[in-house]
UniProtKB/TrEMBL annotation:
Protein function: Catalyzes the reversible formation of acyl-phosphate (acyl-PO(4)) from acyl-[acyl-carrier-protein] (acyl-ACP). This enzyme utilizes acyl-ACP as fatty acyl donor, but not acyl-CoA.
Matching Gene3D superfamilies: Isopropylmalate Dehydrogenase (3.40.718.10)
Record's keyword terms, sorted: Acyltransferase, Cytoplasm, Lipid biosynthesis, Lipid metabolism, Phospholipid biosynthesis, Phospholipid metabolism, Transferase
Subunit field text: Homodimer. Probably interacts with PlsY.
Protein known as: Phosphate acyltransferase
Family named by the database record: Belongs to the PlsX family.
InterPro entries: FA_synthesis, Phospholipid_synth_PlsX-like
Protein source organism: Balneatrix alpica
UniProt keyword annotation of Lipid biosynthesis present: yes
Main localization (coarse): cytoplasm
Pathway info: Lipid metabolism; phospholipid metabolism
Amino acid sequence: MSNRLTIAVDVMGGDFGPRITLPAIARFLSADPHIHLHLMGDPEVVAPFLSSLGQDQCRCALVACSQQVGMEEKPSSALRNKQDSSLYRMLESVAAAQADVALSAGNTGALMAMAWKVLGMLEGVERPAIATAIPTRYGHSYLLDVGANLEAGAAQLVQFAQLGAALAMALDELSCPRVALLNVGVEHTKGIARIQEAARVLEALSAIEFRGYVEGNTLFSGSVDVIVCDGFSGNVALKTGEGVARLLLGSLKEYLQSRWHTRVLAAALRPALRSWARRFEPGVRNGAMLLGLRGGVIKSHGGADEDAFLAALHYAAQVARHRVPQRLAQSLAKIQAQA
């Protein structure tokens, strides 16, 4: 890989495909003059877009693909039959060291299956986990898994904890991240057997500061750096939090517009309120990393709008600039050596 930073983008993926991805890419290119892009997709769609970019066109390369993976397509079918798809070719670009990181809003199951085959897993990791940053009182915590593995045994939960800790070490430069398991109570006797078994193993890991359990009502407290759960629980928790955030922000906006004196107050407070609200707007934090792979892969929300996909592009650029995949692998090896 040269010193040039490159993101491979699945242009066709997501609920809205090029209608969202291409305008977001145009805005990203204007905002970040140093990143190059490999755009995987239908040449009849992407080529006219490239010709409209002006001088930014020189930072983009079209990778023509004859196929695309549907959002409802079975991962096994996509893996067998869609090897010239924008999703598969995007991952091949990372595997061949032609791109530093890959970004897609496409089918999560197909992305995970293809990434597993094309990139392979890091030593000691059975399956990828999707990790995302969630807002807290003091900044953010990492929550994983949020959808790659609907079920996870004790050994996988321990691996997710190690991956999440390695991510916190790589991105936030924490020497000994605080890690907890999501559970229905904080007492040692609470929770199902696999969670209790994972807790016993994590307590013995010196490279991780294991804090026991956190409940749903303290998920956003910032008391720990990494919160670990299976993909079913994590996805429900994440989307519940996003729904509550939208409810509160929408309710506050309606209230401030409901009376003349609150409209005056809102006008005076608008800059501060806008800055505050952005901390909790789900689209601002769009972009979750698939951990455990031999390469960087970012998953955007499938239903992301233009602003949200732009946020995912900026996150992918951050991951590339900080060499997060490489640093994560190094941090994980350090954690595993102390296990």
